[in-house]
Design brief:
- The protein is of the alpha+beta class.
- The chain has a single domain, classed as Beta Complex (Metal Binding Protein, Guanine Nucleotide Exchange Factor, Chain A).
- It is built from 4 helices and 11 strands, in the order αβααββββββββββα.
- The strands form 3 sheets. It has a 6-stranded antiparallel β-sheet, with no helix packed on it. A 3-stranded antiparallel β-sheet has the order 4-3-11.
- The protein is globular and about 40 Å long.
- The N and C termini lie far apart (48 Å).
- 35% of the residues are buried.
- Bound molecules: zinc ion.
- Zinc ion binds next to loops.
Length: 186
Amino acid sequence: MKYPLIFGLAIITAVIFAFLLSSTSSQTDAAPIENVHQAAATDTLPSGEYPFQKSDAEWKEILTSKEYRILRDRGTEIPYVNEFNGHKEEGIYVCAGCGQKLFSSKHKYESGSGWPSYWRPIADSLVGEREDNSYFMTRTEIVCSNCGGHLGHVFDDGPEPTGLRYCMNSAAMDFVPAEEVASYQK
Ligand SMILES: [Zn+2]
């Protein structure tokens, strides 16, 4: 059983790296992305399941490399040094891949995890759940229900009334300020 040890060391190294970075850098747009939570490379997104479809080449064209890494390659950005962790403006967060509305500032809270956290999506139908068994853990992955893009995970240690913590990647989302929500068409 060599692999668990190697992966364990890789995860520990990545976590130490993340903490070092979070304590020394306040840059948000230059934050590197770690694959601490990334699923096995062979576990790709199912095709033909989501209404909004693009080929891999098309995704690479419309997404930045950071967005692609998270949304299509199921990466996880480094905690604390990401765009929306401490973001407090009123408005909504939409999918960076297809624009579907996902979360509202009304349901955002400070979880202390280093990632933007919400206790519910705007509507349950806007996100999909999938079992993620990477890294010897069973977690619930959250995807956009329109394009299947990876957004983050949901955990059951959130605040009332749901008790849920939707732990999202900033780079998987775009922000629409409150004054533009009424005219936002997607
Ligand atoms: Zn989407």
